[in-house]
Amino acid sequence: MQPFEIYALKYAGPFTSSGAFLMWMKDWDRTEERNCYLWCIKGPETTVVVDTGVRPQLAASKKMNGYTDPKELLERIGVSAEAVRHVVLTHIHWDHAAGVSLFPQAKIYLQEKEYRFWIKDRIATRPAFRFYTDDAANLHLASLEKTQRLILLDGDREILPGIECLSAPGHSVALQAVAVNTSQGTAVLGSDSAHVFRNFKEDWPSALIIDLVGWMQTYDKLRAKAASVDLLFPGHDPLMTRDYPQVAEGVTRLV
Ligand SMILES: [Zn+2]
Question: Which of 79, 119, 127, 153 is geometrically suited to a Cys-Cys bond with 74, CB 3.0 to 4.6 A?
Answer without folding.
Answer: 79
